[in-house]
Design a protein that fits this description.
Elements: H1 14-27, H2 30-40, H3 43-46, H4 55-59, H5 62-71, H6 75-85, H7 91-98, E1 121-123, E2 128-131, E3 134-138, H8 144-156, E4 161-163, H9 172-183, E5 189-194, E6 199-204
Antiparallel strand pairs: 1-2, 2-3, 4-6, 5-6
Helix pairs in contact: 1-6, 2-5, 5-6, 6-7
Length: 215
Amino acid sequence: MNDEPAAPESELPEWVVARLTEAHHRVQNVLAGTKLWHERFTDADRARFEQPWPEVWAANQGTIGMWCRARGTSWNRGIVDVAHLLGFLDEPTKNAIVATLPTETEASRVGTQRYRDPKPLWHKGLGALRYRGEIVREVKAEATNVRLILDAFEKDGWPDEIFDPLPPAEAKAPRRRAVETLNKDLRLIRFHSTGNGKRIAWVPVDEDGDASPPA
């Protein structure tokens, strides 16, 4: 899940994080995406996409990314809206969660531009991470934690951030080492922990390793 830097996850109540996480798992799949596309989207919503169904799901970061692009909202608000539309959140719960989220402004929605920008692609079977058509990192089979991170990003369609997918029993040191290992010899993008270690984010970088805006 992703929210803007002005509203880090650490500022959200624990119950909100728990409900967002549950809702995220319920809607970020092709079955939910199919229902959203065919039964909840308007013709105007669908007209915002160049791809037909089902290609549109994979090309726009899944169910939540589709909604964020169609409605220009933040990632967390997208989770809430879609979960409510598909019957996973009732109206009072939706309103209670929305009340804890940052106000939706044009400035806070700037991150939705990322949904139109190039995304990494993780080939699990080949152990290859690609970005902009290039292999930017090769990952060995024994790098279990690194692969768990990449698997989670690929499953969610590469939003700016995801909840840390490593098992809760893992200590902070192995979590930190997994991100450090992932960044070793990595080109064009970088990963880092955020939200007090509860999230992992990726950003494009230039050839010198400096963060750069997406093209």
